[in-house]
Amino acid sequence: MANRRQPLIPRWLWPGLMAAGLILLIALAAMGSLWRHAPESDWRSLWQDSYLWHVVRFTFWQALLSAVISVVPAIWLARALYRRRFPGRNLLLRLCAMTLVLPVLVAVFGMLSVYGRQGWLATLCGWLGVNYSFSPYGLQGILLAHLFFNMPLATRLLLQALENIPTEQRQLAAQLGMNGWQQFRFVEWPALRRQILPSGALVFMLCFASFATVLSLGGGPQATTIELAILSGLELRLRSQPRCAAGADPTGLLPGAGSTQPAF
Q: Which residue, 90, 94, 136, 219, has most beta carbons within 10 Å?
């Protein structure tokens, strides 16, 4: 029987490749347009700009810290949810999914009402005579907000990996008399290990591109990401050209976006 030649690229892969190529083409076109219309300047000065490198380092650093503090506790939380069936477990999982659709400013104002200078913790510490010095602004506030948004997401991803463990493996571990640590090491950890890196990468990308959280809780030039630095540059450019500012922002909200901060 003659064998038919297999195509180098399966047919089912073509739609994905075409979509990826279209996205890449749009991104390259946008970058090419920006490069073509960029003002002429000495590119060597960019490599010597200390503030630019500070912004880049802070963006990567806060995203890396956010990914670590979101994924590491999610491992133990997912394991607890996997091994225990208790009343309200399904409700807790639904609440974890709500962070994906919750508006950022709602969560930020809620966090400020708890950790702010006039929040619940500050009031409680005042009653107890304890000095409350925590500030929800700056790096610590950004990390706290990212933890609130991304740890439930990482928990659900890791829990899904644990629930995909075959029932035969769990039954075999029970027959062999494995204790909790041995079950985690030989049964659960191989499933978690395959999901930790994708979950961490997803959280890292979400925190790297975080805008509203950093805009609300950033502590000034020391806690600025790349996107917020771009907004600050546009704000200064629009302020120096009033006509452009009126045409680009008819509501008048953009020039004051960087100067407003919740009074908590």
A: 136
The full length of the chain comes to 264
Domains of the chain: 51-256 (1.10.3720.10)
Q: Cα–chain-centroid distance for residue 108?
A: 14
Task: Classify each residue of 92-112 as buried b or exposed e, where b means 16 or more C-beta atoms within 10 Å of its C-beta.
Answer: eeeebeeeeeeeeeebbeebb
CA distances, 162 to each of 57, 168, 185, 195, 249 (Å): 35, 13, 13, 9, 49
CA atoms within 13 A of residue 258's CA, in its CB half-sphere: 17
Name 47's Cβ contacts closer than 8 Å, sequence gap at least 6.
none
Cα(58)–Cα(52) distance, integer angstroms: 10
- Tokens linked to 182: 């041995």
* 3-class DSSP assignment, residue 108: helix
20-71 pLDDT per residue, tens: 999 999 989 988 887 787 667 666 676 777 888 889 999 999 999 999 999 9
CB proximity list for 207: less than 8 A, separation 6 or greater? 62, 63, 66, 67, 146, 150
Distance CA 156, CA 199 (A): 10
